[in-house]
Each structure stands twice: as C-alpha cells, then as structure tokens.
Amino acid sequence: xxxxxxxxxxxxxxxxxxxxxxxxxxxxxxxxxxxxxxxxxxxxxxxxxxxxxxxxxxxxxxxxxxxxxxxxxxxxxxxxxxxxxxxxxxxxxxxxxxxxxxxxxxxxxxxxxxxxxxxxxxxxxxxxxxxxxxxxxxxxxxxxxxxxxxxxxxxxxxxxxxxxxxxxxxxxxxxxxxxxxxxxxxxxxxxxxxxxxxxxxxxxxxxxxxxxxxxxxxxxxxxxxxxxxxxxxxxxxxxxxxxxxxxxxxxxxxxxxxxxxxxxxxxxxxxxxxxxxxxxxxxxxxxxxxxxxxxxxxxxxxxxxxxxxxxxxxxxxxxxxx
Length: 322
Fold this sequence. Notes:
Blueprint: E1 4-6, H1 8-24, E2 28-33, H2 39-55, E3 58-63, H3 67-75, E4 81-84, H4 87-93, E5 108-113, E6 120-125, E7 140-144, H5 148-158, E8 169-173, H6 176-184, E9 190-194, H7 198-205, E10 210-211, H8 220-229, E11 234-238, E12 251-255, E13 260-264, H9 269-286, E14 290-292, E15 303-308, E16 314-319
Parallel strand pairs: 2-3, 2-4, 7-8
Antiparallel strand pairs: 1-14, 4-13, 5-13, 6-9, 6-10, 11-12, 15-16
C-alpha cells in the first residue's frame, strides 16, 4: 500500500542542527511544487512539516500543474525555492515555453536533486494491451500546456519505439492532474509519470489499470533516439511504485533525477545553504529524511546533489547510503 510518512530520524537530525540552521532560515517561506498528489508535492509537504516541527519555520507549498506555473512565483520572489523537474533546465536555456519574451533564459541555481527506487517514465493504460513502447503507435498520448518537461519527455520516450508525434494522437491538458483525470476517464492512454506518484496509484486502482513498458539498457538504438530529444533520461532498474513494481518484480524503465530543488541566483546564499543543509543532514544524521509514496526514504540515500556555498558557486558532491 502506498502511504506517506516522515522518518523519525529526520527529527533527531534537525534537532542537532536546528540552532545553526535557524539563524539563516526565515520564519515563513513559500515553496512551489507540482499538483497535489504528485510525488514531488508530497515530498515538499513532508519536508515542510519537519521545518515546522523542528526548526519552527512555516513552509507553504504552492501547487501548480505545469512548469511555468511552478517557476512564476519564484521568479516574482513570492516563493524562495521550487521543487522542479527537468523544467529547470529548459528555464535555464530559455527554450520551449520559456522561450517567450516574458521568460527567456532564467538565472536558476540547483540546490539538490535526488534519485531513488522509482522511475520517471511512460505510464500506459493496461486496457490498451500495450506491451512495448512501439505498441503505443496510434494511441492517445497526454501532454500538458506550459510543461515542456512532460511534453518533451513523452515525445522523447515514445521515440525509443521508433515513434514520433505523427504516430500518435496528442491530447492536450491544462495541468498534470487534469491529464491524470483524463487518463482514468479514458480520454488519453499514455502519460509521463513517476512510478510512485499518487496519480499513477489512483490510475492503477481504476478499471483501466497501469503498465510500464520497459526500456532495455542494451537497446542502444532506442536510447540513441531518446537522447537525441532528451539526453537527461537514463535506464534504471525500478523497484517501487504502482502496477506491481517491487524489489521482487523490478522493471528496467526510464528515469532522471527528481525532485530537483532549485532557486534563483539573487536569493540570499546563507538562507539557501541553510535550507539545503537541513534537507541533506536530516538524511545523513537520521538515516532517512522523508518517506513519501511507497518507501521513498531511499530518495535521499543515493543521491547526486549540489550545495550552494557562497554567492554564485556550487560545490557538487555525491553522497552514498550511510
């Protein structure tokens, strides 16, 4: 059963570091994340709860159904950080929806990115009979207006099976949650998703069901087609999530680091460093920071992260499970 909880070790860790962190942390702050029910939103809320309980900092998580909606409050300085996905890269480069005059290349800064037992991959309705990516030909594929991460991601992954937008029917939705409602209501057949999202679990419990077509790592041509569009995807052995995924029944799926916590270059360096340290040291000292959606405590146990150290400088490091 997929559930949300917070590991007690995180509390102990933040208690140890609380005074030092508290000096740089504001008493109130806003973060942005994907729609309610998404794995990213649940992670942000669970972390925010720890900031409140241990550090006395109130964290308000602002949900949004697309990439531009998540980043707009941070750009306007109404939120200090965002729990983004690969949309951060598109914002940095000023491409797709971020290529308009109102956006352009954004001075974004990476705080931390995590990988875990889940995948970021194609969810397909089980009742379609799809077994492999190539079987998606002729099916309805969901995309979200204002979210190049979802749109470009799904186009890249169907390319694994030799397909393009011309081989499927693209169905536009206004938000991530709207797309998943359409999935359950038989308005679309395919969606890009984390295997541990609440939406994929809900869809799996619906009459339609969910399957995850595999992306074998040894299919070099398939992966070359993916990387031509989206070089950030990698094959990963996925052991948690909806559709029966488990350590006993793993699948090789596509994925990339998620969530990606980011901010803007003009935010106070000492505050951003304190927030980042609070997230990281909770896991390091407490053997588990946040568990959200089917044992996501591993999300911070094997991670590539970046810690901001001083104005405009990032020190990259790799942390392994303790």
